[in-house]
Design goal:
This protein has 116 residues and is α+β, with helices and mostly antiparallel strands. It has three helices and six strands, in the order E-E-H-E-E-H-E-H-E.
Length: 116
């Protein structure tokens, strides 16, 4: 495998993706913006706040550490009940960074209840 964290092997059909042994998708989606010089650029804009890539990365790292300190281990799942706000991204990407599987829950999708 080359230096790339993901490599497509087109010699097989269908093509196969091969990942570096320490590949973490949070690096590609979050951390790379810092290393590529976009730390001060806007990553998330809400009605009343602006979050830069540096702030996003810092909060993702804090969340990852917090989940691990709570005793969650790599490969375990965490059920996410979070509003549509920057905290969603912190928890989702923090879980992935820590090797924990995030399971977002949408509380608006409710099952019909019939009373007898």
């Amino acid at each position: 495998m080359t230096q790339s964290p993901v490599e497509a092997d087109a010699s097989e059909r269908p093509s196969r993706l091969r990942f570096a042994p320490t590949y973490n998708v949070a690096v590609a989606f979050i951390d790379r913006h810092i290393s590529e010089g976009r730390g001060a650029k806007v990553a998330i804009r809400t009605a009343d706040s602006v979050i830069t890539y540096a702030e996003l990365a810092d909060n993702v790292n804090r969340c990852a550490g917090g989940l691990l300190r709570l005793g969650l281990a790599r490969g375990e799942r965490v059920l996410m009940v979070v509003k549509d706000c920057p905290a969603f991204f912190y928890l989702f990407w923090g879980a992935i960074k820590a090797g924990i599987v995030p399971a977002p829950l949408n509380t608006l999708l409710r099952r019909a209840v019939t009373l007898s």
